Amino acid sequence: MQGNFTFHNPSKIYFGKDAVENIRGELPKYGPVVQLVYGGGSIKKNGVYDAVMRILNDCGKTVIDDGGVLPNPTVERLMEGREKARANGTDFILAVGGGSCCDYAKALSVAVWEEDPEDFWFKYYERFEKPAEDAKIVPAGCVLTMVGTGSEMNMKAVLTNTQKHWKRGGDLGPRAAFKFSVLDPAYTLSLPYDRMVAGAFDIFVHLCEQYFSGTDDCVSDDLAEGLMRSVVKNSRRAVLDPQDWEARSNLMWAAALALSTVFGCGKSGDSMVHQFGQSIGAYTGATHGMTLSATILPYYRMVLADGLPKYARFAREVWHVDPAGKTERETAEAGLDALEAWMRELGLVMHAREIGVTEEMIPGLVEGTRVRGFYRKLTREEMAQVYRESI
Ligand code: NZQ
Ligand code: ZN
User: Fold this and answer.
1) Cβ partners under 8 Å of residue 303, min gap 6
2) Could you identify the atom of ligand 1 that is nearest to the CA of residue 292?
3) Which residues are bridge partners to 182 per DSSP?
4) Closest residue to atom 36 of ligand 1, CA basis
5) Cα separation of 48 and 19, whole Å?
6) What is the CATH number that goes with domain 12-187?
7) Contacts of 42 by beta carbon, 8 Å cutoff, 6+ apart
8) Which of 190, 245, 266, 346 is most deeply buried (CB count within 10 A of its CB)?
9) CATH 1.20.1090.10 occupies which residues in the chain?
């Protein structure tokens, strides 16, 4: 049964080769001052910065440089961007980069005219409020260069609070969604191998987290199974040849779709893998997808018995496990074994120690982990066990 839901995704997607040219038609809709958000410099090496600047100049925009937004953006860095936007009267925010720049840009669009900057974190990341209907929000768009998070087509923005050692996702609502997102697979071809596979795995986990909930049949799950198979197939092709356009373009569209919320329609979801991964990210600053690969197997093996029919269905439908002669549990376990084999093929991080996690961090990691499971709600001791096993 498909449960009740409201679906509203207002981001316009321009997809394909030279798609960036479409922003010539978008930029005139906004005022002259554009705050250009980018990361540590990859866009200056692969030509994307020049392509975007050419268009901004042609459109007569005044560009406020907001480069240096590093992976896993912090609320402290966001406040620097807020000051810059207020001082320059930013009319539009353009993010050029991966999920970190996209999330920063969406959070910035809400933060600029928030009256109390001190309260921003508490309001959106602890009380989980949404901007008021009449809140002043600076419009934003993106040119995506890294595939995985789906930030280009959703309303979430993940930020880290370094003082608390907490990394959390805020849902800022449809008014903070990008007005447009440019998805040109060519812009992703310069990604280092480990970022490419980490991104592919991130897509897969987003689908799993919407899938592993509920007990009966629904369209969202049928769609998710199809896209999961596609991500596995295309990631394998991309591993063999990272320049394979077909594979890379398929992954790029898969990423945007996977967290566009369409697969979660009418479902509650189980985002524990992201809760574990984000807690690790807050401590180590590790690559997002690798924090997920380090924790997914201990967690799924811990809760497998609680959601047995769904894990068995995952095995059959996504991994083509033949249930003949197997108990339901054996089928379900074979599905997780197949998942593990694919993760090893990609060369993902399989142990949290590889990304700097130590036993001493476990109490703090548990403290920063929100409980958002479905088939079973973990106790603090069980969460600690997942971290211990992941190391
Ligand atoms: O900073 P630069 O120099 O640009 O280098 C980046 C960065 O070091 C590099 N890179 C990006 N595009 C490149 C490239 N290098 C070469 N060529 C290119 N074309 O890749 C590195 C990682 O970039 P980042 O944006 O941090 O990666 P990702 O897209 O994985 O984003 C991760 C952030 O998104 C959050 C994560 O928690 C993390 O903070 N997420 C956001 C979500 C959302 N908004 O819905 C959901 C996700 O689950 C995730 O939590
Ligand atoms: Zn993710």
Assistant:
1) 373, 375, 376, 378
2) 48
3) 14, 143
4) 288
5) 12
6) 3.40.50.1970
7) 97, 145, 190
8) 346
9) 195-390
Tell which residue, 262, 260, 146, 258, has the closest CA to residue 198.
146
d(C-alpha 172, C-alpha 189), whole Å:
30
Alpha carbon distance 14, 11 (integer Å): 10
Give pLDDT, residue 1: 64
Measured in Å, residue 71 CA sits from the centre of ligand 1 at 6
Taking 70 as the threshold, does the pLDDT of residue 63 lie above it? Answer: yes
Q: Say which CATH superfamily domain 195-390 falls into.
A: Dehydroquinate synthase-like - alpha domain (1.20.1090.10)
Angle, CA 264 vertex, CA 340 and CA 242 arms, to 5°:
45
pLDDT in tens, 279-309: 999 999 999 999 999 999 999 999 999 999 9
Dist CA 150 CA 158 (whole Å): 12
Q: Select from 9, 52, 100 the residue to mutate for testing ligand 1; criterion: most ligand atoms less than 8 Å from CB.
A: 100
| Exposed e or buried b per residue across 113-127, where buried means at least 16 C-beta atoms within 10 angstroms of its C-beta | ebeeeeebbebbbee
pTM for the model stands at: 0.97
What is the distance between the alpha carbons of residues 294 and 287, in angstroms, rounded to a whole number?
11
**Which tens digits make up the pLDDT trace of 180-193?**
999 999 999 999 99
